[in-house]
Write a structure and sequence with these properties.
binds adenosine-5'-diphosphate; binds magnesium ion; nine-stranded mixed β-sheet; single chain; alpha/beta; 22 helices
């Protein structure tokens, strides 16, 4: 429950805050209806009080009472990302350049804003979080500290179920590590063997690494089925500095750990098994070990600090105690809807507890083992879903009945699984079937030659022993099934051909069959064509939730539109979201550029004025020297005019410096925005290409290759067999497409590279097949 989580989080941060070395802050997630009467901040903004209304019916005059009070270093309410950085991170980062290790951690319930605080919005410069800002600060300080040679390295580690993952291992020059990573201690500190550490000489490189890691974080949550809210992520900036002037001076090394902790909500253990239970146990343990370690650090009597109890504290060992700066930000939700009802909830809880006890007695009388009656959480529901799947697959013999709630959920999940399977079958059919024009006799005879249809035009089933064929025919189209009905050849010529990617479904009615036109269509099925179309479109939807889901593809035209025309369509439909972001970023970029150019103009104007003033001063000085200088007790006497000029010059120089600093900041922002714009553009184009090929083409290069290599026209051969992947690959790819594609340019290029390799591979396979057929 939210209330409990609030108190748990607040008391955690307050307990940590009492430790000398730890600075504890609370950041409250903004909300429209903040319960001011219930959550109060101290005047110094260094405490949070939770107030609960007393029962007014009892006639208490002062109907408020402080129920809980927590002391902290600061409360960040409605705080901008700027302010948050200034408050919690700036000093830690600046001291890192003097050799102090620093750790900044975000703690709190899932959804309360940890990642927003740490990483921020990766599409919006203004809302960037502590991570990119820390990198900017580090590079800015390096620029200022010309006396020192400073190198910066970064790494990005994820800890999930007590296993270590390198979030930057996808970089081409890194590659996956052969052995699992281990935490190693040496006199210099703690390091992680096997974790890639990347030298970055400029801000932009560092940003790229950050984006790469962020992308991998999201990808991993899909492909490895990891729940990203259940892992700890540590981005580390390693700084190494030595004086350029004093050759004997030692190196100063330090690290800044920026930690996005796993969600602190207590995960239900009851009813969960396997992976889920493991996750729950590991998170609960690692967060409480973290607490123990920090408490032990603050306790002077303790000489043993339990760092090695879990990977999190072990990895942070040299950045938690001693000379380290440590900041803990606890993110909490601003809503406290449940706070108001706490009293009522408490009563209901009491009642519920009684009822549960009673049920337990019943259970034990009825010889049933301990049963849990709590509502299902998402973890438990997922578990039931998996049970249902296993049951349907036959790997689970029966699903034990536990209680009414569970039975209801089992039925519910049956429905979920069933409708998912329906969708899968339908889209599989759509991938595999296509129609060849019945008037295109060349096509028909080619297909007959290839042994795919018999002399009557009836389809031959599985292409046993053929050099190339149609792949596996779905059950409903296998010989002996309905497909062999008494339809005439003309009605019947729906050649099952495997088809790549998204398609343009058409019903037979919509299909305009004219000679020499070949169109890909779905095998006509009564009534549900539209339904299937919707489903498939959403199942291959490359954009996350906020883009239009139910996109209806118009029929595939016989001649595809030109790319510029198609691009316009794409930007209004499938690509609208990315296009919007792209335009938004571009306008931010332009605005910054404009400001930078204005600032440059101002700087030039100031510079000119400085020059003029200097000249005027020189004239004055010369005049003074000519007239003979006045001196009074060793002090030079100058006249008012000269004095004013000096003041003016000083003021101008100050302005100049300020403007110059602004310009530098603007340039950094421009660089960052440019990066985002490039990323967006790249993604927009890549998505478009994929969409375009899927919508209008089987790849052109393959058509060309086939034309020159074979006697059969490309449109009539089951060309999709040529470009299609094996059954398993196909599944892998549709998964890849769904999971990786939305996640950013790095994944797109990964996906592209992979698809290209596989297509090449399959193309070669198919060509060999075709040649064998030709020989026959
Ligand atoms: P967590 O990492 O703790 O699970 P997130 O950082 O992902 O939570 O936040 C959940 C959602 O709330 C995100 O969409 C995020 O953009 C938004 N959000 C969180 N904190 C803020 C904030 N201070 N201002 C605006 N949006 C926020
Ligand atoms: Mg998060």
């Amino acid at each position: 429950m939210m209330t409990t989580e609030h108190f748990a989080a607040l008391s955690f941060v307050a307990r940590m805050g009492t430790r000398k070395k730890v600075h504890a802050f609370v950041r409250v997630k903004p909300t429209d209806n903040f319960p001011h009467e219930m959550i109060r901040y101290g005047d110094d903004n260094k405490s949070i009080d939770i107030l609960l209304k007393k029962d007014t019916r009892r006639g208490v005059v002062n109907n408020q009472q402080t129920d809980w009070s927590f002391k902290l270093d600061g409360v960040l309410h409605d705080a901008s990302q700027d302010l948050v950085y200034e408050t919690v991170a700036k000093d830690v980062v600046s001291q890192a350049l003097d050799g102090y290790n620093g750790t900044i951690m975000c703690y709190g319930q899932t959804g309360a804003g940890k990642t927003y605080t740490m990483t921020g919005a990766t599409e919006n410069y203004k809302h960037r979080g502590i991570l990119p800002r820390a990198l900017q600060q580090v590079f800015r300080m390096i620029e200022e500290r010309t006396t020192h040679a400073i190198t910066v390295r970064v790494s990005y580690l994820e800890i999930y179920n007590e296993s270590l993952f390198d979030l930057l291992s996808t970089l081409p020059y890194v590659g996956p590590s052969a052995t699992p990573m281990t935490i190693v201690e040496n006199p210099q500190g703690v390091f992680i063997k096997g974790l890639s550490v990347h030298l970055t000489s400029q801000e932009e490189d560092a940003f790229s690494l950050l984006f790469e890691g962020e992308t991998n974080r999201v990808i991993a949550s899909h492909t490895m089925n990891k729940n990203s809210s259940r892992s700890h992520c540590i981005f580390t900036i390693y700084v190494e500095s030595h004086s350029r002037t004093l050759s004997d001076e030692k190196y100063i090394t330090s690290k800044i750990n920026l930690v996005d902790l796993a969600g602190s909500e207590r995960l239900g253990k009851t009813g969960s098994e396997g992976r889920v239970l493991k996750e729950a146990t590991y998170i609960n343990k690692s967060l409480s070990f973290l607490e123990q370690a920090i408490i032990a650090l603050g306790d002077q009597k303790r000489d043993h600090i339990p760092f090695r109890q879990c990977k999190l504290t072990h990895a942070l060992k040299d950045s938690l105690g001693g000379n380290c700066n440590m900041v803990l930000v606890t993110n909490i939700y601003g809503e406290a809807a449940q706070l108001e009802e706490t009293r009522m909830v408490k009563n209901l809880e009491k009642e519920l507890a009684l009822l549960k006890q009673e049920l337990a007695i019943h259970d034990s009388l009825a010889n049933r083992t301990l049963v849990n009656y709590d509502p299902m959480d998402e973890v438990q529901i997922a578990e039931i879903n998996s049970q249902v799947r296993r049951y349907l697959e036959g790997t689970l013999d029966e699903i034990d009945i536990i209680n009414l709630r569970q039975i209801q959920e089992v039925f519910n999940q049956f429905r979920v699984v069933l409708s998912q399977q329906e969708q899968e079958i339908e889209s599989a059919l759509r991938r595999k079937y296509t129609l060849i024009d019945k008037n295109d006799f060349a096509a028909i005879s080619a297909v007959q030659k290839a042994g795919l249809a018999d002399v009557n035009g009836h389809l031959v089933g599985e292409p046993d022993g053929q050099g190339f064929g149609l792949g596996v025919i779905p059950f409903s189209f296998k010989p002996g099934k309905k497909i062999k009905s008494k339809k005439t050849f003309k009605d019947q010529l729906s050649i099952p051909v495997r088809k790549e990617g998204a398609s343009s479904p058409l019903s037979t009615k919509e299909l305009d069959i004219s000679p020499s036109k070949t169109q890909l269509i779905l095998p006509p099925r009564d009534g549900d064509v539209k339904d299937m179309r919707d489903r498939e479109t959403s199942s291959t939807e490359p954009f996350p939730s906020d883009s239009p889901k139910e996109e209806l593809r118009p029929p595939r035209p016989s001649t595809p539109p030109s790319k510029p025309v198609a691009f316009e369509d794409f930007k209004n439909e499938r690509g609208s979201e990315i296009n919007r972001i792209f335009k938004e970023n571009k306008s931010i970029l332009n605005e910054r550029r404009k400001r930078a150019s204005e600032t440059t103009q101002r700087i030039n104007a100031i510079k000119q004025e400085i020059d003029t003033t200097k000249e005027a001063l020189n004239v004055q000085k010369a005049l003074r020297e000519k007239q003979g200088e006045y001196e009074n007790k060793g002090l030079m006497i100058i006249d008012e005019e000269e004095f004013l000029l000096i003041l003016k010059l000083k003021d101008l120089k100050k302005q100049y410096r300020a403007e110059y600093q602004d310009l530098r900041d603007l340039r950094a922002e421009i660089q960052y925005c440019q990066h985002l714009v490039d990323q967006c553009r790249h993604r927009l184009l890549t998505e478009f290409d994929i969409w375009y090929n899927e919508s209008f083409f089987i790849p052109e290069d393959l058509q060309v290759a086939l034309k020159s290599g074979c006697s059969i026209r490309p449109g009539m051969v089951p060309i999709n067999r040529v470009v299609s992947l094996g059954e398993d690959d196909q599944d892998k790819f549709s998964q890849l497409q769904q999971t990786m594609l939305p996640e950013g340019p790095e994944s797109v290029s990964f996906y592209n590279a992979k698809v290209k390799t596989e297509q090449k591979h399959n193309y070669l396979k198919a060509i060999t097949g075709l040649q064998q057929v030709n020989k026959k």
